[in-house]
């Protein structure tokens, strides 16, 4: 074996891929795909979120592979959890796991079908008018109504399976949306930039 004098490898720095831990991160709606089903009239909003630069102010647990397709929390020699800057998460995108469903004209007693739609829209800052008797009068939002809006996204590893091919695996997806009161809306140009001005 021939020793290389000036070539070293530090797994802490040169390890490559850094696993993203489950958590809640500031983000913006970066993509909206709307599919409407003619037979039922229902629409599903498939949203993608881009993690905001503000995530760099956070610290997250440092994870390492466990050798079985999962991850473990890194600890120091005293058993304390190691934290690292979340700056590597800035600009990452996550898709909403189950989409956001709108059911126009639900059957009597099935108004609950729009509960998640209302909650997610309100978390994004979308306001619906109120009827005289205090009910929300829902509207069918369009992509430009929510594109660039700020929110907090809860992400975690989600198992998936393709029933046609039999393939399965895990991926990190957004599983919930909450309000990010300090966040501000981004323009389409700001969303597409890798260098967001803050």
The count of β-strands is 10
Distance, first to last CA = 50 Å
Question: How large a portion of the residues is in β-strands, by DSSP E?
Answer: 25-35%
Which structural class best describes the helix and strand composition? mainly beta
Shape: elongated
- Helical content stands at 10-25%
Largest sheet descriptor = 6 strands, antiparallel
Unreliable stretches:
none
Describe this structure in words.
By secondary structure, this protein is mostly beta strands. It has one domain. Helix content is 11%, strand content 32%. It has helices spanning 11-14, 115-123, 143-146, 188-192, and strands at residues 23-36, 43-51, 59-61, 63-65, 71-73, 83-85, 93-95, 100-102, 150-161, 168-178. The strands form 3 sheets. Strands 1, 2, 7, 8, 9 and 10 form a 6-stranded antiparallel sheet that branches. It is elongated, with a radius of gyration of 21 Å. It starts with 10 loop residues before the first helix and ends in a 6-residue tail after the last helix. 19% of the residues are buried.
Give the topology, please:
Blueprint: H1 11-14, E1 23-36, E2 43-51, E3 59-61, E4 63-65, E5 71-73, E6 83-85, E7 93-95, E8 100-102, H2 115-123, H3 143-146, E9 150-161, E10 168-178, H4 188-192
Antiparallel strand pairs: 1-2, 1-9, 2-7, 2-8, 3-6, 4-5, 9-10
Care to give the gist of this entry?
The protein is 11% helix and 32% strand.
Please supply descriptive tags for the structure shown above.
elongated; 10 strands; 198 residues
């Amino acid at each position: 074996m021939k020793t290389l004098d000036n070539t070293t490898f530090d797994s802490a720095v040169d390890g490559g891929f850094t696993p993203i831990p489950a958590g809640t991160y500031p983000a913006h709606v970066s993509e909206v795909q709307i599919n409407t089903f003619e037979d039922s009239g229902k629409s599903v909003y498939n949203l993608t979120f881009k993690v905001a630069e503000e995530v760099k102010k956070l610290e997250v647990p440092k994870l390492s592979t466990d050798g079985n397709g999962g991850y473990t929390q890194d600890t120091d020699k005293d058993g304390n959890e190691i934290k690292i800057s979340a700056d590597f998460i800035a600009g990452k995108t996550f898709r909403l796991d189950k989409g956001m469903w709108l059911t126009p004209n639900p059957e009597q007693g099935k108004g609950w079908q729009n509960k998640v739609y209302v909650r997610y829209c309100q978390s994004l800052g979308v306001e619906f008018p109120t009827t005289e008797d205090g009910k929300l009068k829902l509207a069918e939002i369009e992509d430009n109504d929510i594109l660039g809006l700020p929110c907090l996204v809860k992400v975690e590893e989600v198992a998936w399976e393709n029933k046609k091919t039999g393939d399965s695996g895990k991926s990190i997806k957004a599983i919930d949306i909450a309000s990010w009161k300090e966040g501000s809306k981004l323009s389409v140009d700001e969303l597409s930039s890798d260098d967001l001005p803050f």
